[in-house]
Design brief:
124 residues; 7 strands
Length: 124
């Protein structure tokens, strides 16, 4: 019985100590200005929402990249779904020299980004 318990512990997924590769790839590509590479990280039915206005609106990868251009990206934080280890949520903050900073939420499923919500004000 002890051996069986040890095998279950060994087979359990380890906590994610790095952000999901899809989110990292997206952020790296956007930072370098390579929108083709950024687009390759997206799921076919990705949803991109701009929350910088009065209410969230459907948007695009181009608009997301433009919103963070010239800003300094902070370290991402992330949570992995406890029930589905292939799903994760990543939060990233940017500080900008000429305007208020912003925050983006990026959801991943497996090897792809499935949702981007950007333009959120940084919580105080």
């Amino acid at each position: 019985m002890i051996l069986f318990s040890a095998l279950l512990v060994a087979a359990a997924p380890a906590p994610a100590d790095t952000p999901p590769a899809a989110a990292t790839g997206l952020l790296t590509a956007v930072a370098s200005g390579d929108l083709a590479a950024a687009g390759a990280t997206l799921a076919e039915d990705v949803a991109i929402m701009d929350s910088s206005g009065a209410s969230p609106a459907a948007s695009s990868l181009d608009a997301f990249a433009a919103s963070v251009r010239g800003c300094a990206q902070g370290e991402p934080s992330w949570d992995v779904d406890g029930e589905d280890r292939m799903r994760a949520a990543v939060t990233v903050r940017w500080t900008c020299p000429s305007r208020p900073g912003s925050e983006a939420l990026i959801w991943t499923a497996g090897p792809r980004v499935v949702w981007i919500q950007f333009g959120l004000p940084i919580p105080q």
